[in-house]
User: Fold this.
Amino acid sequence: MVTVTVSSAGRTSLAKGLPITVDIPGKGVETATVADVKAEILKKFPKFSTSRQKLALKTDKRALADEKTLKEVGVVDGDEVTLKDLGPQIGWRTVFLIEYAGPLLIHPIFYYFPKLIYGGPVQHSRVSQYVYAMVMLHFLKRELESIFVHRFSNGTMPFTNVFKNSGHYWLFSGVFLAYSAYSPAYSSSSPYVRGTLRDDPNFLLGCVAVWLFAELSNFSTHLTLRGLRPAGTRKRGIPKGYGFSLVSCPNYFFELLGWAVIAVMTGSYAAYAFLAIAGYIQTVWAIKKHRNYKKEFGKDYPRRKVIFPFIF
Assistant:
């Protein structure tokens, strides 16, 4: 049996009475895991779900991974760990579904009800029709991937974060892009469209071809990442194969390529704004993942760029 003292790292209304001592019968520090400690805490405080619990060493604020043994994280028998309440949680899969649902709901409203938005009818041009199809197919793909493809290293996140995460998609790729792309400025009779590349079938079909390449490539990289993580684990391997020979995060690169196509095809300020915002966010994510890969795998991790082939 191993014994661990659990003290509070702050106000924890769901676990009044800390510090406490929990016992894990039948296991030692070599076999007892952080998840076992959380399970014992849950027994004492039934309303304090394990997803809300953040355990850390007394000398370190970093969260201890659930699947690690106590020995692996540096906890010995009789040692002390701190407990913090992360607040109400929501599943990552649910967050993704909510994020991508926004544009799927918003774009049809702007596309099919122009009188409600612009005060009059709009005869959609070919470029608007293509944008509508591309946006809807992209986010439908993302919803299906969230359900059937993605495996998440973290099961939950703070509930309040869903509003911040969703705002990026609902506002910029939802309201702003839809308002621009289906407006009278992009109607079939608009001088901004007629007689320009935006009215050229060859140009538009070329854009669709590049966009389709980006979407299928993005899907391929997601399948590769899924294959690296066995179901129910946080284990990671070195990603290899299509796209990964050039950059650490080709999934981000191909997604940005798809949005760049829409921006070039439309020339819309909203499309370029979303591309810039998404590019910044995903570059930050890619840098973090690239560093984590190098830290985790060391010399075994191959030399490659972060997100943009041959550039960065």
Observations:
- DSSP finds nine helices and six strands in the chain.
- The radius of gyration is 24 Å.
- The chain has two domains: 2-87, 90-300.
